[in-house]
Design goal:
The chain has about 100 residues and is mostly helical. It contains eight helices and no strands.
Length: about 100
């Protein structure tokens, strides 16, 4: 039996793919990548990406039309993203003063 040969994309390490995702310009770009293939979808929720995603992408996630606007922010903060932790703290403080 012949062994199926991997495509070049499949041979790239997850760290390299995560770097592409981290450099996403916007939350919409990240979602577009996430919807491209199973590997991107899986990596978009991986700590490799959530720890390092930019402040702009995290902040933009708060303005998305969904029923849990802080869900993505919390996942990033839980993964150890310092900018997301700061933003989540600001959200919590501001909600306590309202």
């Amino acid at each position: 039996m012949s062994k199926k040969r991997k495509q070049p994309f499949e041979r790239l390490p997850d760290e390299m793919i995560a770097e592409i995702m981290v450099d996403s310009v916007s939350f919409d770009d990240l979602n577009a990548l996430k919807n491209t293939c199973k590997r991107f979808k899986s990596l978009s929720e991986d700590a490799l990406v959530l720890q390092r995603i930019s402040r702009e992408v995290v902040a933009e996630s708060l303005w998305q039309k969904n029923n849990k606007p802080t869900a993505y922010l919390k996942r990033c903060a839980d993964a150890g993203n310092p900018e997301a932790q700061y933003l989540l703290g600001m959200v919590i403080i501001s909600l306590n003063f309202v």
